[in-house]
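Cross-posting from the modeling subforum.

Setting up a comparison between two proteins and wanted a second pair of eyes on the formatting. Protein 1 (sequence, then structure tokens):
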Amino acid sequence: MDPLRKELYETCQRLGVGITVMKAFGGGDLLSDKLSPAGKSLTLYQCLHYALSRPGVASVMSGARSPEELKVSLAYENASDSEKDYAEAFAAFPKISWKGHCMYCGHCAPCPNGIDVASVTKFLNLARAQGEIPETVREHYAVLSHTASQCIRCGVCETRCPFQVPVMENMKEAAALFGK
């Protein structure tokens, strides 16, 4: 964990301030061998347990991409300790780095042209993961007030990104993929 984040979590715990964690599944990437920045997937239980075991964490907004993921998340409370244990998985990770992986955190904002960079990147990543543009993703992209084609490549977003995501390249790819 980043030392500053660790310090924040510990301070919150010491002061009795509860933290709600979002993106416990790394935007879904942690659940996939192919997309995980660690090079190996974790289970829903492992992700939830890791988040809940951080100092000061009171709750996790798990989110779910399917009814099955929601059912598994809800079953976390009844999962065994061995199902929740992430230590062995962490030790076996071939690599661990979030560099280049957008977590849709919004640190890149604001864009001088009003582009919702996190949403555009999310839609781009969903299309990449599917190997095509799902109709719902196409529809969500179409209603954005500012699209990737409006990126002027100023690079301000990249200077703010804690994960060193190649935002300008993503905007170029999204503009080509979505046609605007």
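Protein 2 (same layout):
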Amino acid sequence: MFLSKKVTKIGLTLILAAFNMSVQGQDLLARQAPIDKKMRAVDSVALHRLIDAENLENPAFALYQDWSNDYAHRSYTNVPEVYKIDLRHFAMPTPSQRVTSNYGYRRSFRRMHYGIDVKVYTGDTIYSAFNGKIRRVAYQRGGYGYYVVIRHPNGLETIYGHLSKQLVKENQTVRAGEPIGLGGNTGLSTGSHLHFELRFMGIAINPAEMFDFVAQDVLGDYYLFRKNGKGLALKADEAAKYQNSMIASIGTTAEKAEAETTKKKATVTSNKNNSHIHKVRSGESLYTIAKKHNTTIEKLCKLNGISRRTILRPGQILRYS
């Protein structure tokens, strides 16, 4: 009888202990939930930063697939029929509002003027129009004078000519609004000014179709480039609608097939560019991740600011090259 009561007491004690552990476990999970949510948000921010850094290091690689410091601009054969250029997060290359020469044919010189001339004085600061990477810093006696060429992740290349001084070096990354040179009167120039030029895969675009120097603003959130016609600056809600209608009206079946092929190539290349990022799966370790990507644990730790003792979490973002 006594033994039966003792067993019953022990059983009740175990049940209460198990219940208490269950409650404590639920409390632990409840406390852990916001932490996990916060860590996921941190991972998302880290991922966007890594992608942004990759886009700056290899700007518009899906389009150009090359990088050279040897020329100001050149023609490409794989130009897409339609392409949406992101104009957001821009900076005006100069606060000057005075345009002294527009884009177009110059009868007096019997040649095309492929940019816009904006009045600046020698020594005035010139700024990068978008985030990008400096592709060329050079001097052209019979043309641009001292000039800078920047390739941007949105597909554009901007050229800044007749500078008195260049403040950047080739292969340097810059942010929109960062100083890249000083205004001047070098090269083929009859007075101090900035020659501002826009090109998409070598094709010149009238800067007035994107930039309003008087209003110191861009004309839309996006610019829809058209290979065989004038592009359009549009607000975000209009851009997708017009892009789809343009693709639908490209023309012949062959042209549509070519446009689709270009789009697929761009997608594949873009995926390759983002392949330097690894998302940790359950059960993975630094050793297995390093082995999978043919690298070392030391390199993984250095790239991600962690140590060999760092505990990896499923979903965590790691860069391996």
